[in-house]
Design a protein that fits this description.
The protein is an alpha+beta fold. Helix content is 28%, strand content 33%.
Length: 236
């Protein structure tokens, strides 16, 4: 049986997703929502708390709840953060599915990108990122097996960076990034919801440890309508 506050949450989330409640507007007051949904004020407060935790609204003291813009999600260009760290701001709206994990000898292109020696093994990992029930990011990761000797589906489902830093005791230091716009390939069509989209935003990451070893190469393939990449620039 669904709790009353979950029903209120689902209805308000649906209205925000479908732009019935516009970004920047104020939600009705708690009293008005209590009357609208014929329920208690405590139920309304629980629903609003969930909406706030999942990134739908921002509560301002003395003003009310402001609807946030959920049509796009900010990904810092210069930052080096995991999807888990970004997804924590979205709560239950974000989900990761591991669709491929295998130890393999990489293609010549990956060997060149990762500066590997011939015959050196890598972990090949594909993860689909789902937000608001839409599959909109395909992360294709390749990790040097000599540096990361073991990976499991559970680790990949959670956070590889957390595992590398906490369990392996390694320090992730910096990354080089390249951003291009490409036509979707077979993997994009197979794993993502691309109806009506003829382009993919591809962010290539070359990630290094603090001893300057390149341990990861990633192609993060984004549906273009949902994301904006942000950075801060200062004139020297």
């Amino acid at each position: 049986m669904i709790n009353k506050f979950t029903k209120v949450y689902d209805d308000l989330a649906h209205k925000i997703q479908n732009d019935e409640l516009r970004a920047g507007s104020l939600l009705p007051s708690e009293n008005e929502l209590t009357e609208l949904y014929k329920t208690s004020r405590e139920t309304i407060r629980k629903a609003l708390k969930m909406l706030s935790e999942d990134g739908y609204i921002h509560k301002v003291q003395g003003k009310g709840s402001i609807v946030l813009d959920i049509s796009k999600f900010n990904f810092p260009v210069s930052g080096l953060v995991s999807f888990k760290e970004l997804a924590q701001k979205m709560g239950h709206r974000a989900r990761t599915e591991v669709v491929k994990l295998e130890r393999t000898i990489p293609s010549p292109e990956i060997v060149e990108n990762m500066r590997l020696s011939s015959g050196q093994a890598v972990w090949k990992l594909f993860r689909v990122r789902e937000i608001d029930r839409e599959k909109i990011i395909l992360d294709k990761d390749y990790l040097n097996e000599e540096i990361v000797p073991e990976l499991t589906k559970e680790i990949c489902q959670n956070s590889i960076y957390e595992y590398i830093e906490s369990e392996l005791g390694l320090s992730i230091s910096f990354a080089k990034k390249e951003i291009t716009v490409e036509e979707p390939n077979e993997d994009d069509y197979a794993y993502l919801n691309l109806d009506g989209f003829s382009n993919i935003v591809v962010v290539k990451n070359y990630v290094y440890l603090d001893d300057a070893r390149l341990f990861q190469y990633t192609e993060s393939r984004h549906r273009p309508d949902k994301f904006r990449f942000v950075d801060f620039a200062r004139r020297k």
